Prior knowledge:
Triger factor/SurA peptide-binding fold, 4-stranded antiparallel sheet
Amino acid sequence: MLGFFRRIINSRIGVIVSGVVLGVIALAFALGDVTGLSAGGVTGGTVARVGDQTISEAELARRAQDELRDVQQRNPNVDMAQFIAAGGVENVLDRMLNGIALQEYGEDQGMVVSRALIGSELRNIPALKGPTGKFDQAIYEQVLARNRLTDAQVQSDIARETMVQFLIRPQVGASQVPKTLALPYASLLLEKRAGQVALIPAIPGGPAPTDAELQAWYGRNLQRYTVPERRVIRYAQVTPDSVKARATPTDAEIAAAYGGDKARWAARETRTVSLVTVLDQAAANALAGNVRGGASIADAARAAGLEARKLEGQDKAALTTATSAAVADALFAAPSGGVVGPVRGAIGFVVGKVDGVAQVPGKTLAEARPTIVTELTKTKTADALNAIRDAVEGAIGDNSTFAELVADQKLAAEATPPISSVGINPLDLTYRPQPFLANIVAAGFQAEEGDDPQVVQTGDDGSFALVALDRIVRAAPRPLAQVRDQVAKDFAADRARRAARTAAAKALAALNGGTALPQALSSAGASNAKVQRLVAARSQINAGPNGPNPVLALMFSMKGGTAKMIEAPDGQGWLLVKLEQIQAGDAAKVPPVIAATRRDLGQVIGGEYAQQFTDAVKAALKVSRNADAIARVKASLAGAGGSDQ
């Protein structure tokens, strides 16, 4: 079945169907996700085999940790236990197997990823570019060291990802779906169902919870009260303001700049000119004759199928740069309103007209001073920032500590409070980090304890910061004494939901035993339930802006005449759904629905082809998994056991 219709048809609530997306397709090569997949040189048991290659426990564990860090960038509350429970380790292993299998298949077919292409992809990674916008070898080496990688591992990953693109991209681009394939799916969208829905609300009440009950609830739900990992990050900013004293030009420097560029400040003549470039000399002669005969140069150019261009306020040097020395000489020799040419230019022949002549007075040192000060300040600021940065990076290479660097460069050191990877302080929601801290926090969360300080760009004006990880505050639950009121509230809400569930289960049993809905609710002690009639088409499941409607999804997964229950949104209670009628759809009578279905299928069928192709390659290469080794990796990652790595 196609992924699109998995989401439409397999609509039982709680079933999450992943799309047909291969994690190895995009060469999005984020730095935090660069890990070695090469089979050699890694100790530990084997978790999987693809042809002649293996994946070790150490490799799988490392990639799973990298992926969790990436997930935590978006949701810092996710921990390893949740990641494992959601199938994260298996998903990571699947993507690793996909990549290795496709690479081996491509190589078996004689396909090659050249070293030149690998180098090109590496140079185009944004995070590896320096202040000049070009690939920075020093940054690359820092990344390798920080992530404990080798250049060979990185290049191997790039080669694999590129090979996967070679094989998969043509399939992903497929989008044609025949009408005969779309018709049954389109008909399913037109299917209609009717029934009743009853909401049994949470039933509050009961005695106040005892200390033992609160302690037990707290122990079973520690994750609710766990503060995610936080880090204290030390940093010292270097900004244009911090080098202002050394970037302020002296009178001598200003005078030297003025004297060294006297032509710039001297009185000069500028001209505004209109120019037309003509490839053929005879045509250029004709155009010049028309202009000299009284036609405007713009009209004469349009008549010849050309366009005139105007250059405003050009001195001779600027005009020479914009055209050529011969053209500039001719235009500056002509009077205002004069026509020149044709003059041979860099390309073809130029016909020009002097539209205006202006005399620009010279500037004294005092008059030029503001401009010179601005320019010198900008240059000296950049030089000062670069000098400090070079000194700091050199000292880091010599193993200087953060404290030593701050002292040597006379920087002002600061530290963040314990903050999460998104820059918030879970224990102080009033804390608002400054925008410049974003890159500093990112660097702090990429570092490990004991790593060397880093230099991080913090602004487009050349600002940067020296950054070092001070300490890691591991994720831990807040003490019960601190959250007792919240625990008591959560306990009471859970008890009310469980009471509603008990009533809903009793009513459900009666419904499926043949009792009418009102009597079933009454016998279950839920006579206050709200009952509504529900009529919908299957296409309405995904029609809302908030994703699939869980009630409709459940109703369209049921057999006629049956009833099922589902928890109401936001824990308000439980819903009973009784399906009473099913009316089949016939899209053959509604061509627009078939057309829309073909378009929707066309958006996912390429991904389905890619998935099927990948599965076929893996089957041909006899991919195997070691369930015991995978279990050891998961236990080790969860802290519940070890591995032999």
